[in-house]
C-alpha cells in the first residue's frame, strides 16, 4: 500500500536532503512550464529554499514523500510586520503522482502549520498562466471557482546579445540632459559609497520606501513593505550566502542631495548567465524626466562592461505598470511568460479544496 508522508521545516533549519529534493523538483517544474532555457543551477535553487527572503518574512518548507521518495513540495511565507494574515503558498506535485490528493494535503498542512502560530485570513498563490501545463489550473480557479486574479505579473527577458557597452553608453549620454542635474552613483550593496559621493543611506531608504508605496498592487489586499538598514543588511547577507551579489545605481539630485531613484540587479558572479533585475523606481516628484530609463541604461552599460558572461536580464512588472513596461520594451525586453496571482479567504479556499479550515482562521 502506498504511504504518503509530509514533513514541514522552518527556513534555516531544513535538512539537506529536503533542500536537494525541493531544488530538483523545482527544476522539473521549470522544464514542465518551458522555463528552463537556460536552466537554473541546482545549487542556486537549493540556496533559495535554504535561506529564504529574510526578515521580517517567516517561511517554512515542506516535502511530500510517497513510499519514501520525494514526489512534491510546498513552501509558505508570511510577512508578520506588514501583512500578518496573508499567507502565500507554493505547492507542486510531480506529474506521475497527481490527482490522488497530495496537492490538497500539502496546502492543508501548510495552513495548519501557520495557524498554530497565528490566524490566517487569506491565502495567496500564483500560476504561470501562459504555460500550457498551467492553463487547466488557471481555468479551474477563474472559471470554476469564480476567482479573478488579484494581480497579473508580466515576466520579461532582455537578450544581451542585442546590446554592447558602447551602445548603452551612447544612449545614456543622449538621455542625460533630459534628466537634469543628477549624479549617478554605483555600488555593491554590501559596500555603500562614502559621503564624498553624495550618497546617504537614510535618504536611500526613504526613496525605497516611497517607491514601495507607488508599486501597483492591482487587486491584491496587500500593504507595501518597508525597509530599514537592518533589513537591507540582512537581505544583502543572505544573497552573499547564496553566492549572489547585489549591484545598485542611484540618482542623486545635484542641488538637494536627495536620492531620486534607484535600480538594482542580482546575479551569481560564477554563473552570471541569468541576471535578475530587482527594483527600479523613481520618487514621485522626479517622475517624467526619464530617470527610470536612465538608471536602467547606466546599469546595463556597467553589466556589459564588467560581466561578460551575462546573457539575459529577467524582470517582472505588474501588468498595469505601463510606464515601466514601456521602458523595458524600448530597451528590448520581450515577454517571457505571464503569471496570475490570486488571493482567497482561507475558508473559501479550504471549501473549494475540500479540506478542513485550520483553527479560527476559517
Q: Your description of this structure?
A:
It is a single chain. Helix content is 35%, strand content 30%. The chain has helices at 16-32, 42-51, 102-115, 135-144, 165-179, 201-214, 229-241, 291-306, 322-331, 346-353, and strands at 4-10, 58-66, 69-79, 83-93, 122-128, 151-159, 182-188, 245-253, 259-267, 274-282, 312-318, 334-345. It has a twelve-stranded mixed β-sheet, sandwiched between helices. A hairpin with a 3-residue loop joins β3 (69-79) and β4 (83-93). α5 runs antiparallel to α8. The radius of gyration is 21 Å and the shape is globular. The relative contact order is 0.16. The mean pLDDT is 94.
Helix content: 25-40%
Examine the coordinates and then state which fold CATH places here, giving the name of the CATH topology of the largest domain: Aminopeptidase
**Low-confidence spans:** none
- Biggest sheet: strands side by side, in what order? 1-2-3-4-5-12-6-11-10-9-8-7
Largest sheet: 12 strands, mixed
The ordered H/E elements are EHHEEEHEHEHEHHEEEHEHEH
Quickly give the structural class.
alpha+beta
**Would you tell me the overall average pLDDT?**
94
Any idea what the radius of gyration is?
Answer: 21 Å
SS summary, helix count: 10
CATH architecture of the largest domain: 3-Layer(aba) Sandwich
Q: Which CATH top level class of the largest domain fits?
A: Alpha Beta
As a percent range, the share of strand residues is 25-35%
Taken from the alpha-carbon principal axes, the silhouette is globular
Distance between the termini: 33 Å
CATH superfamily of the largest domain: Gcn5-related N-acetyltransferase (GNAT)
For the secondary structure, the number of strands is: 12
Number of domains: 2
Amino acid at each position: 500500500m502506498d504511504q504518503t508522508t509530509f514533513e514541514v521545516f522552518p527556513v534555516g533549519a531544513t535538512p539537506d536532503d529536503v533542500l536537494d529534493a525541493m531544488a530538483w523538483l523545482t527544476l522539473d517544474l521549470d522544464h514542465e512550464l518551458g522555463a528552463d532555457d537556460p536552466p537554473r543551477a541546482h545549487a542556486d535553487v537549493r540556496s533559495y529554499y535554504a535561506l529564504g527572503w529574510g526578515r521580517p518574512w517567516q517561511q517554512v518548507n515542506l516535502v511530500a514523500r510517497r513510499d519514501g521518495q520525494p514526489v512534491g513540495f510546498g513552501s509558505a511565507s508570511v510577512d508578520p510586520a506588514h501583512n500578518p494574515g496573508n499567507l502565500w503558498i507554493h505547492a507542486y506535485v510531480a506529474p506521475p503522482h497527481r490527482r490522488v490528493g497530495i496537492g490538497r494535503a500539502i496546502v492543508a498542512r501548510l495552513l495548519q502549520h501557520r495557524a498554530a502560530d497565528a490566524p490566517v485570513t487569506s491565502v495567496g498563490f500564483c500560476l504561470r498562466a501562459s504555460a500550457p501545463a498551467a492553463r487547466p489550473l488557471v481555468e479551474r480557479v477563474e472559471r470554476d471557482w469564480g476567482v479573478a486574479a488579484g494581480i497579473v505579473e508580466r515576466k520579461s527577458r532582455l537578450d544581451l546579445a542585442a546590446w554592447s557597452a558602447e551602445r548603452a553608453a551612447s544612449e545614456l549620454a543622449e538621455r542625460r540632459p533630459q534628466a537634469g542635474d543628477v549624479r549617478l552613483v554605483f555600488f555593491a550593496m554590501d559596500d555603500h559609497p562614502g559621503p564624498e559621493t553624495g550618497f546617504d543611506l537614510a535618504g536611500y531608504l526613504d526613496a525605497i520606501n516611497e517607491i514601495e508605496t507607488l508599486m501597483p498592487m492591482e487587486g491584491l489586499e496587500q500593504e507595501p513593505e518597508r525597509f530599514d538598514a537592518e533589513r537591507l543588511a540582512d537581505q544583502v547577507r543572505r544573497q552573499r550566502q547564496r553566492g549572489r551579489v547585489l549591484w545598485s545605481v542611484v540618482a542623486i539630485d545635484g542641488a538637494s542631495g536627495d536620492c531620486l531613484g534607484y535600480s538594482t540587479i542580482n546575479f551569481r558572479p560564477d554563473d552570471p548567465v541569468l541576471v535578475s533585475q530587482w527594483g527600479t523606481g523613481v520618487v514621485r516628484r522626479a517622475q517624467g524626466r526619464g530617470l527610470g530609463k536612465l538608471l536602467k541604461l547606466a546599469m546595463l552599460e556597467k553589466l556589459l562592461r564588467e560581466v561578460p558572461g551575462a546573457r539575459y536580464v529577467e524582470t517582472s512588472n505588474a501588468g498595469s505598470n505601463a510606464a515601466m513596461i514601456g521602458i523595458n520594451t524600448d530597451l528590448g525586453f520581450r515577454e517571457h511568460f505571464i503569471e496570475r496571482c490570486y488571493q482567497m479567504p482561507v475558508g473559501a479556499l479550504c471549501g473549494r479544496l475540500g479540506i478542513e479550515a485550520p483553527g479560527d482562521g476559517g
